[in-house]
Design goal:
Number of helices: 21
Oligomer: single chain
Low-confidence stretches: none
CATH topology of one domain: Rossmann fold
Radius of gyration: 30 Å
Helix content: 25-40%
InterPro entries: aa-tRNA-synt_IIb, aa-tRNA-synth_II, aa-tRNA-synth_II/BPL/LPL, Anticodon-bd, Anticodon-bd_dom_sf, Gly-tRNA_synthase/POLG2, GlyRS-like_core, tRNA-synt_gly
Main location: cytoplasm
Subcellular location: Cytoplasm
GO biological process, one term: glycyl-tRNA aminoacylation
Keywords: Aminoacyl-tRNA synthetase, ATP-binding, Ligase, Nucleotide-binding, Protein biosynthesis
Shape: globular
Number of strands: 29
CATH architecture of one domain: 3-Layer(aba) Sandwich
């Protein structure tokens, strides 16, 4: 399909066949919100379950489900109130708001306009002579402003308890860390996953379900001790990946690096082993669920793109309609999140790590004379005592002088050192409290669904007629099997078809039963929604000598094979899991000419 037509063709099919469509259309609709129809809801659920199986179950990670609304202090601590912004430019003529970096990228060769400052973006808009996409008015001279993307609300009556819809699922994990660490027996490393909704008040939602205001994330927060914990790369070191490092993006002649995870980590291209580990797992997972690997890459964030919490980040990107879209991010967040919540919240966001052998250390300590500090500093006495303890840890030599100077709420105060009762003690320690670092693979479920649909969209010709089909993997296809009696007026065929459908459903397969219209049209209906296999019950299967048989038809090629009814469930179990190929089924049974 030619560039620029995929989105339109897919949107038409998605609406007609029940994958996704704009929400609240009976009331005029609202941008950035979509409803998943029966096919889309099933596909999305299958993607989520496939992710959960690989990143939670197989990795031995915990899973939680946190609320989607959280109180304002959470986002003050996390930095989202100050740093979760996009650049907005408003048309003076029609009042329509647009995302400035998207306008620049859509009308120039610049691919990283989000790294520009608002002032630089405004200059670029003027230099390019950009106009409002809505009314055509010139945008030169219009200011570019930072716009916070969070949806605000009030918790309970009145406005005493402001809150926000979460812009990412991660904060629900970080906030609950003091309790979750107990479930992990306070042993690092451990991972916590969550699949759920997030909300961002996008300036200009676009590309169907690619950029919406409500979406689903599947996130994993891997908590590690950076001094002790290293991933075992043996299972992914030979996984081949296509990387687009920041250095190559900044080079006029830059290109992709086709390498392996092991080589990329060894050479420092991927700086963090944990990030490399999850890139390797993700590469195999995306291929397993049906992403076209020829239209897939991992791109490193440029310095100006990095989120406020990230020390390094790589995006998994898929090519759609000639553009590359982010479908997952893999960030090394350091100890930013837990440290921030540790500063703001009334709980412990550290983990006690026991030493292999007890250590004898010298510690600078103070034992402030509160009988002196109280009368001298009044209500500030406790703050002064705490400041003395902090100074002893940071700069014990300061207590060699007769007095020390402290900063108490911006005010400089002096304290005689003899009042601090400073000393250096020898202590035996069994371990230490550390703030874990975080490695975060974060997947956009909706964007993954969209990628799968675009990459699966195929057109060909069968028996002289044009055919559209979705070449979805059996692992995630919304319907696994279509069951068709060849004709609907023969009781034996209908009864057997009913039995087959019931048996497959009991075995956990999503089955559609269809006895309406010609067999060719029934096939086409299932092809168009991505059903990988259809079972046809005909007279030959029930009247021939030997076992009762049915015909299995493969979607992509139209090949058919006759299989005994008794082995049908076992055959489909293997086909769905990928342990059996259709060629294996053809080799073991009677091939039927289409």
């Amino acid at each position: 399909m030619s560039e620029g037509t995929e989105s339109a063709a897919l949107a038409e099919l998605a609406k007609r066949r029940g994958f996704f469509f704009g929400s609240s259309e009976a009331y005029g609709g609202v941008g950035g919100f979509y409803t998943y129809g029966p096919q889309g809801a099933a596909l999305k659920s299958n993607v989520e379950e496939a992710w959960r199986d690989r990143f939670a179950v197989q990795e031995g990670n915990l899973e939680i489900e946190a609320p989607t609304i959280m109180p304002e202090p959470v986002f003050e601590a996390s930095g989202h109130l100050d740093g979760f912004d996009d650049m907005l430019v408003e048309c003076a003529e029609c009042g329509e708001s647009h995302r400035a970096d998207h306008l620049i990228e859509d009308n120039s060769e610049l691919e990283d306009a989000e790294t520009l400052s608002p002032e630089e973006a405004a200059e670029k808009i003027a230099d390019l002579g950009l106009v409002c996409p809505n009314c055509g008015a010139e945008l030169a001279g219009q200011s570019v402003e930072e716009f916070n993307l969070m949806f605000g609300t009030n918790i309970g009556p009145g406005s005493k308890t402001p809150g926000y819809l979460r812009p990412e699922t991660a904060q629900g994990i970080f906030v609950e860390f003091p309790r979750i660490k107990e479930y992990a027996r306070n042993r690092l490393p451990f991972g916590v996953t969550q699949v759920g909704r997030a909300y961002r008040n996008e300036i200009s939602p676009r590309k169907n379900i690619v950029r919406t205001r409500e979406f689903t994330q599947a996130e994993l927060e891997q908590f590690i001790d950076p001094e002790r914990d290293e991933p075992d790369l043996s299972s992914v070191e030979d996984v081949e990946v296509r990387l687009y490092p920041a250095t190559e993006q900044q080079d006029d002649d830059g290109d992709y690096l086709d390498t392996t995870i092991g080589e990329a980590v060894d050479e420092g291209i991927i700086a963090n082993g944990w990030v490399g580990y999850y890139l390797g797992i993700a590469q195999e997972w995306y291929e397993h669920i049906g992403v076209d690997m020829e239209r897939f890459r991992f791109r490193q964030h440029l310095p100006g793109e990095l989120a406020h919490y990230a020390a390094d980040c790589w995006d998994a990107e898929s090519e759609v309609d000639g553009d590359w879209i982010e479908i997952a991010g893999f960030a090394y967040r350091g100890d930013y999140d837990l440290s921030k919540h540790g500063e703001h919240a009334d709980d412990d966001f550290t983990v006690f790590q026991q030493y292999d052998e007890p250590k004898t250390v010298e510690r600078a300590v103070v034992d402030p004379d509160m009988a002196t500090l109280g009368p001298e500093f009044g209500a500030q006495a406790a703050d002064v005592a705490e400041a003395l303890e902090t100074l002893a840890e940071r700069d014990p030599d300061a207590f060699d002088a007769d007095e020390v100077t402290l900063d108490i709420d911006g005010e400089a105060v002096t304290v005689d050192t003899d009042v601090a009762n400073f000393s250096v003690e020898t202590q035996t320690e069994a371990g230490e409290h550390i703030t874990p670092h975080v490695v975060e693979p974060s997947f956009g479920v909706d964007r993954t669904v969209y990628t799968l649909l675009v990459h699966a969209y195929e057109q060909d010709e069968v028996d002289g007629e044009a055919r559209t089909f979705l070449s979805l993997s059996p692992t995630i296809a919304p319907t696994n099997v279509g069951v068709f009696p060849l004709v609907s007026n023969v009781d034996e065929l209908v009864d057997l078809a009913d039995d087959v459908a019931e048996e497959l459903r009991a075995a956990g397969f999503a089955v559609v039963y269809d006895d309406s219209g010609s067999i060719g049209r029934r096939y086409r209906r299932q092809d168009e929604v991505g059903t990988p296999f259809c079972v046809t019950i005909d007279r030959d299967g029930i009247e021939g000598a030997g076992d009762t048989t049915v015909t299995i038809r493969e979607r992509d090629t139209g090949r058919q094979v006759r299989v005994p009814v008794d082995s049908l469930v076992e055959t489909f179990v293997g086909l769905r899991a990928g342990t059996t190929s259709f060629d294996d089924v053809l080799d073991a049974n009677e091939v039927v000419e289409a």
